[in-house]
Write a structure and sequence with these properties.
Blueprint lengths: L1 E4 L6 E4 L8 H14 L2 E3 L6 H9 L17 H7 L14 E2 L2 E2 L43 H6 L3 H7 L29
Parallel strand pairs: 2-3
Antiparallel strand pairs: 1-2, 4-5
Amino acid sequence: MEITPITSSFGASVSNIDLASISEAEFEQVYAAWLKYKVLTFRGQHLADDALEAFSKRFGVLSTIPYFDKWGMTEAEFKAKHNGSSIYILPLSNIKKNGVSIGGLGDGEVMWHADMNYMENPGVGMVLSGEIIPGEGGDTEFADQEAVYEGLPASLKERISNLSIKHDASHMSDGKVRLGFEDQISDDP
């Protein structure tokens, strides 16, 4: 396995590894690299949903797809309805079939956001798997929030030190109302 930093503290590319058959020792190296670089890329992996789920579980407890609990179905019913799909994997796509987006969020999910930050206990990470990658465009970008905070002036850090925020889960980051929610209009967005 080879771990090549993209910058000295943020992002690294991991090569010469098969995530479908990763050993415990290899995973420990991957986990340490993830803690250090925050974002890792693994090119050329072809993981079926069960292998992707198994790899992801090594990082910790998985969250179900957003608001699965509001759909009123069991995991078995979900799998039967969605051709064996995992309740932990949310397909995202800009591909449309018969005029309908096949992905969970349609094709409007393009704005800067933090995944799942509306949850009471947000996850510590996200595993993304790209099946069809365009030769041009389709980029996913990441921002090092620790570096952003460290770069703030001391006066601003002091001013915000006691502030907190609660994310309103009624809308997705593209502004559409989330399934199972009513539009929550507030004077204080």
